[in-house]
Amino acid sequence: MSLSGSFLSDEQFQCSICLDVFTNPVSTPCGHSFCMSCISRYWVGAKVCQCPLCKKTFQKRPDLQINRTLREITEQFKSMRGDGVMGKEKGRRKGGRGDGGMPHNFFGELKKKLPRPLPKIPQTQTCEASGQGETISALLLPVTNSQASSVPNHSAITGYTNAPLPPPNPWSRSSSRRRFTLSGAASSRDIPVCDSHKRGITIYCRTDHVCICPECEMEDHYDHDTVTVESKWMETKEQVKVSEQEIQELIDMRTSKIEEIKISVTELEMSVDRETASSVCLFSMLASAIERSQADLIEVMDISRRAAEHQADSMIRQLEREVEELRGKQSALAELAQSDDHLHCVKTFPVLSKPSNAKDWSGVSLNTDLGTAAVYKSLADVMEKFQQELKNVIETGYPAPVLGHSLVRTHNRMKRVQEYALNVTLDSKTAHPRLLLSKNMKSVRCGDRQHFVSDTPERFDRVVCVLGREAISSGKHYWEVEVGGKTDWDLGVARQSVNRKGKVDYTPDNGFWFLSLRDRSNYTFQSEPWTDVQLNLRPNKIGIFVDYENGQVSFYNVDAKVHIYTFNDIFTENLYPFFSPCTNKSGKNDIPMSITPVNMTD
């Protein structure tokens, strides 16, 4: 087996950053090696140092020292590699070098460079060099029975020798990977043993997600992605910490939601008690008015009935008397007509035929008016007043206790400000390089990395925010933004002349008036000093109203129809809508904030 095929190659001495052979190699605390200049450039400007390979994070930048042992071995490797390139064919003819231009006495030369002799380890052979506290391990192919039979004096091979090695196994990953790696000293603790090969289970196969021994790796996993079990566990430990943190955040979120629900239940109970008492009072007044009106109607109708009956009786009696008188005259005239006393008849007839003093009953009728109109009019006035009170309840609700100095029910007020709806769109020329804007310029979210954009004076380069296109220089304007599901955001307005480069101080004195959310539940107004506000109802949609002449910037919970807060200031230049979705918090705050159409409150 040639040294180039079974022991060393360029990959083992290659820096993963510059992809070239090490120059002044250094090792990070996690055990990976890089060129001193490469890793130094990689960490320039980084707030937290991170290993480019395993992504292990170091809160404090490691104090790196040149790995002298690895540097000496690398230099030796460079010199041998150079000789091999020039004399490859010559080596083949003379038998002095292998296929890769490596001398067969490389171990001898390597021993001269190392400060102590190499130990002899059967099967899996390890080369260690103590220098600057570091260890170099070389994992060779284990000698199987079939291979041992083809090697002369194989029973005597227990360490490194200059004897020719058997040809490499083309299917073995040991010929190209895991042959020369930086690692610590081998652990002395007991490890599980493979049932099939009776060897320690020290390797993890990422491809099949199983723990295996070196023999299993050679036979069944030769072309798979494998690492040591210890390395896999170190990766898993980092994942465990992340999982614990995520679970704790879920617990905190649900605990907060429980408290929010309990508060909502308490407020609901108070609302039920308040509205029950108020509604009972309102409807009791109506019921009492109806009962009184009903009683008045019965009384008035009874009086009208009795009056009509009395009138009718009087009229009937008078008519009956007149009828009786007329019948007497009728009888006298009948007798006069039968009389033979002509003189008597002549004298009596004028008296009997003279018209009587009877009343003219042609225009006389009974009064049937019940007199209830006045009662109905009084009831109508009561109903009109009830309807007005009922309308007030529908619009503003029953009077409620104030929940905070800035929380007041403002249904009518919101309805008025919504009449000043402004069609706001985002200005891409002001957007931070990490922001991703929708095609219709109505929504924005933060990406994982910065994108190539022109660095114009209008663009923010430090603050993850964007302005609206619409300048506000006078009048009243209103717009609404959907923020439901986000953990962090900033919303409001900014002055045209605000500082857009570098660190920005978000205060009204510096031209910023906005509301902020942090960690799902911490609402703050960026005043001096900052003003914390407790919102029992978490807003899903925020309404922003600007009254330029009166110097006011107001915020509303659109869904709950609640006024949250109002800034009072003096505006002397153009204002622009301000939006900041904040960073995406590793995907936890990836939901975009969107400008939505204004729907007038019913």
Outline the structure in words:
The chain is of the alpha+beta class and 602 residues long. It has helices at residues 3-6, 36-42, 68-86, 88-94, 106-113, 145-149, 214-220, 229-338, 342-353, 373-396, 411-417; strands at residues 25-27, 33-35, 49-50, 57-58, 136-137, 181-182, 203-205, 210-212, 226-228, 408-409, 435-437, 443-446, 466-467, 476-482, 489-495, 512-518, 522-525, 531-533, 541-547, 552-557, 562-568, 575-580, 593-596. The chain has an eight-stranded antiparallel sheet with strand order 10-21-20-19-14-23-12-11, with helices on one face. Strands 13-22-15-16-17-18 form a six-stranded antiparallel sheet, with no helix packed on it. A hairpin with a 5-residue loop joins β11 and β12 (443-446). The two termini are 87 Å apart. The relative contact order is 0.06. Residues 1-6, 83-104, 113-188 and 400-409 have low confidence and may be disordered.
Short description:
This protein has 602 residues and is an alpha+beta fold. Helices cover 35% and strands 15% of the residues.
Portion of residues in beta strands equals 15-25%
What is the averaged pLDDT score?
Answer: 77
Query: How many strands?
Result: 23
Measure the end-to-end span. Answer: 87 Å
Helix content range of the residues, please? Answer: 25-40%
What labels would you give this structure?
602 residues; six-stranded antiparallel β-sheet; elongated
Write the layout of secondary structure elements.
Blueprint: H1 3-6, E1 25-27, E2 33-35, H2 36-42, E3 49-50, E4 57-58, H3 68-86, H4 88-94, H5 106-113, E5 136-137, H6 145-149, E6 181-182, E7 203-205, E8 210-212, H7 214-220, E9 226-228, H8 229-338, H9 342-353, H10 373-396, E10 408-409, H11 411-417, E11 435-437, E12 443-446, E13 466-467, E14 476-482, E15 489-495, E16 512-518, E17 522-525, E18 531-533, E19 541-547, E20 552-557, E21 562-568, E22 575-580, E23 593-596
Antiparallel strand pairs: 1-2, 3-4, 5-6, 7-8, 7-9, 10-21, 11-12, 12-23, 13-22, 14-19, 14-23, 15-16, 15-22, 16-17, 17-18, 19-20, 20-21
